Each structure stands twice: as structure tokens, then as C-alpha cells.
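User: Show me a protein chain along with its predicted structure.
Assistant: Here is one chain, sequence first, then C-alpha cells.
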Amino acid sequence: MPKYIFVVGGVMSGVGKGTATAAIGKLLQARGFEVTAIKIDPYINVDAGTMNPIEHGEVFVTEDGMETDQDIGNYERFLDRNILSDNYMTTGSIYQAVIGRERNLEYQGKCVQVVPHIPEEVIARIKKVSRKTKADFVLIEIGGTVGEYENLLFLEAGRMMHLQKPEDVIFVMVSYLPIPSKIGEMKTKPTQHAVRNLNSAGIQPDFILARASKPLDEPRRNKISIFCNIAKENVVSAPDVDYIYEIPINFAAEELDLKILRQFKMRSIKKDLQDWKKLVQIIHNPEESVKIGIIGKYFKTGAFTLTDSYISVIEAIKHACWFFKTKAQIIWVDSEVETSRDLSLLDGIIVPGGFGSRGIEGKIKAIQYARENKKPFLGLCFGMQLACIEFARHVCGLKDAHSTEISPKTKNPVIDILAEQKEIINKKNYGGTMRLGAYICQLQKNTLSFSAYKKINITERHRHRYEFNNNYRERLEKQGLIFAGINPEKNLVEIIELKNHPFFVATQFHPEFKSRPLKPHPLFREFIRACLK
């Protein structure tokens, strides 16, 4: 029988439930078990696709085209597994399914109620994932924190599963222990209150991961054990780390994997974290460093700079740097205020995905600078579209070249929308209707892209509505733009390159979604190689 591990948050959000879930999964995987992970988000949105990335962070796209929370990306990177759409659910998607079933008379005339029918739908989805993946362990992360009314129905689902088979379900709370600067003492009271809130939902945590800026000491461990009614050895220290890939090593040192197996009355004789330990050694002992500029607009919120909007891009850069035993110095360049002086200090430039008109001209200037000054450049999705516009304007002489997303009446729509997408927009049906998920791309031989992938047919993940306008392909090609990758099903441009440039590659897809810490993405790897040169 599969075992289920619910991971919940205490005190505050953003303290690392997703990475803790992924790290636990990695440890159990290293012990020879098959592991999968599910993310439950409590918002009413049906998926993450319609949310502003500054508010919620990156939208991660699965292989089968689901727009999800960024934690799914962490699961994929840690477990080296594709996590599919069944592994993601929201309050909105659950209610939508239950109401749809009620409209189809599938409840056979019953009064459909919040309890038990909503938790039953959650449980049914969890068990569906268990069957499809044939996993030994299914980890279920519940977004937000305990005590929020939004989470009660998901906690109820966990309580019901535990009631049915207590030997198959455990609960892990990730809770924050503040150290007020004027007091200088780690405080356990917020965690005690969080556990009481969880108790009020009928759940007692089996483990508490004590998140703090410093390691947990014995007096605090004892206090949490006594006041939270939990075995002392099951209070696990989870201090801040510089790199999230250290977390499995820290948890292994606390024997968290062994303690979980004991809780389930299970054994394992295998343990293989050698590759992971080597990676951490490389991370902490780089031989070189490289400055990579990300030209974007989704990282300013008031007086704070947030990086969650581009988390997969950041991780893909790091993975590629570690391949060369190199440290990545990531420089955030605001596309609304950047200058050539800012760009001259960089070893490479990345223009990532995005939407809307704000900061567009700054990104185009950065692309022009990279092209003219032989600076290694990687464009991602919107970055490819803007690279085509820049080339059309400054090399082909089409001064008003633009995208119809930004300038609907442009006379030279180098980037335009497909006919089927026009119908969707006219109906204002935006959610889940872009070109999403994995599509085939055929590579031209004798290109940088082919030399990186070393094969002709590849699949990569997409999230966009606008495409390169094939009416301009011949004109741009004559001026030296290389169309290195094409989707054969619809004859759509997937990759562009430049000749006589150390590295100028841009993709309509998002290669960052498929990068893994021990397997950097080929395009990011070759981009970093060029930056190091």
C-alpha cells in the first residue's frame, strides 16, 4: 500500500514547504522508493495561469500543459521526474469538478455539501495520482498555513484519510521560529499556536521541521516536544541554507528519512546520496564565477526585489554553472531603467518570458547591445519574439516592426497571433488557452542548437499565445537570421540563431522548465560555456 505524507505550514508562508517536501521526497527516493509529490493551492483560481507573477511567483508549466505553482518545478528538479497535471489542484479546480458532477446528476439526487463531497474529491484525486504513478510514497503539500479558513477542507481530507488508515498517513509541519533581533532568543510560541490550530482541525503533527535562521538548540527542541505533544527526536532542525540543494543533506544528518520509515514501520537498506553530495561540494567550492544579467520587469514590489517570478531561469543558470564548477553572479537589470554601462559589465545576457508592453523598449535595446557587441545572449519565449523584432528593425530596416500583442495596428507584424488564438481572445477565454506544454521541435544540422542537443527531434514546453509571423521568414533569413528549430506540425518557428556570434540563441519555448541540478539544460549549458570564454 502507498504511504501518504501531508506537509503543512505553520506561522507564516514562504518558509520552504515546497523545498522541504521535495527534499523529503529526494531522501526517500535515495533509499530506493518510488516517490511523487502533489501540490494543493487554496485559492479559487482554477490554475496559476491567470495570476500576476509578482503576486504569486513563477507559473511553472508541466509536460502535459498545466499551468501550476512554482513548487511543482522544485519537485521536478529534486526528484528528476516529470510531475504531471494530476499532481496539482486548487480550490477552484475542486469546486469546478464537484459542481460539474452535480450538473451531470452524478450524485444521484443527493444534497451536495461542502463536507464530505469536497474533501472526498480531494482524496479521490490523491489516490488517482497514487495509482497512476505507482508510487511508494505520495507527498501532499498544502499551500498557505494552518489556521487559514481556505485550508480547512484540504486538512479535512487529510484527517479523513488518516481516520481510514492511520498506519498509512503522517503529517509534517514546517513551522517558523523567529529570533527577534532585540531579544536574541529563538521563540517557540508561534509554533505552539500553529500546532494548536492544527489540533483544532483534528490533526496532530508527527514531525515538526523547525525553520529558523539558525540551527535548533536542545532547550527549544525540548520545549516544542513538550508543548506540541510530539516525540523529541521528531522535532527536526531546518536552518537557513545558501542553496536549497543542501536541504536533503541537512535532513539526512538529522536522520529524517529513517525516522519517517520508522513511523511507517518500514525498512530500507539502500542509501545513495553520493551524486547529491558531490553537487553540494561543487556549489561550495567554485573554481570560477560568471556575471549573468536577467533583463526583466517582474522583480520589483515596492522597496523589495523578489526573484520568484524567474525561479526556473535562476535555477537553470545555476545548474549550468555548476556543470563547469562555476558560481553564477546573477545581476537584476530593470528593463525600464537599464543602461549600456550596466550591460557592459556582464558576461552574458538573458531576456526571459513575459507579457505586456511595460519595459519592452529596454529589452530590445539590451538585445541590440548583445548582438552588436558579441555578448552571449539567450532569449526565452518573449525574449525570442523581441529578438526577432530587434533584428527586423535594425538589420532589415523595418523600423516599425513589432508584435500585435503590443501594437495591434503595426504595419510589420513580425510577431502575430494564430487564427485559433484570435477566436479565444474574442471570447475572452484566457485561462489555460495558450500553446501550453510539450511540443516537438526539429533542429537544423550545423547550428548551435543541434550541437547542444546532439539530436534532430526534441520536445520542449511552451506557454505563449503569439508566434513568429512566417511571412517575414525569408526576408530575415536573407539578412542572416538562422531559423534553427521548427515545429513540424504547424511550421512554427521555435529557435532562432545568429552566425558569427559567440552565442546568440533564442527559443519560443521555455527550456528552463526541463533543467535539473544534475542534468543542466543543453542550451543553458552552452550559453554558460560561451560566457566563460
